Amino acid sequence: MGAYKQTVLYVEDNELNMDLMHHIFKRNLPSVLLLKADTAELGLQIARQKLPDLIILDIGLPDLSGYEALESLKSKEETRHIPVLAISAFAQRLDIERAKGAGFAGYITKPFQVKAVTETVEALLTGGS
Length: 129
Prior knowledge:
Elements: E1 6-11, H1 15-28, E2 32-37, H2 40-50, E3 54-58, H3 66-75, E4 84-88, H4 93-102, E5 106-109, H5 114-125
Parallel strand pairs: 1-2, 1-3, 3-4, 4-5
Helix pairs in contact: 2-3
Protein name: Response regulatory domain-containing protein
Organism: Paenibacillus borealis
Pfam family, one: Response_reg
């Protein structure tokens, strides 16, 4: 893993959001390796192979919803311990409560703010919430 101390998997189908997240990690979280997947299925495969320290999961993916992907992660012994951070354009209080009730470790709304992403990722990587 080289100079990287931790690994985060970002599952997102929007290329602009993927690019923005890449820049956030490069600038604000340089010791964290950002792995990327543009579908839930690919994200699940990478999660099982690489066992990242954190997964950032878009709720509105085209192949599986973020909820279905979370359920799959939590059903597998090797991935159930990995905290999963939801990211979504759905920003209503009920959306956030539903996500936390489903087992997501946190919730970031789109368009996401650099500071919010950085602080939330740092907190989850150090065992906080």
